[in-house]
Amino acid sequence: MNPDDPIGVGLGQGLPGDGSRRRRAAATPQYVLTEETPVYVISVAAELSGLHPQTLRQYDRLGLVCPDRTAGRGRRYSARDIQQLREVQRLSQDEGINLAGIKRIIELENQVTALQSRIAELADSLEGAATALQQREAAVHASYRRDLVPYQPPTPQSSALVVWRPKR
Question: Rg of the chain over CA atoms, in angstroms?
Answer without folding.
Answer: 34
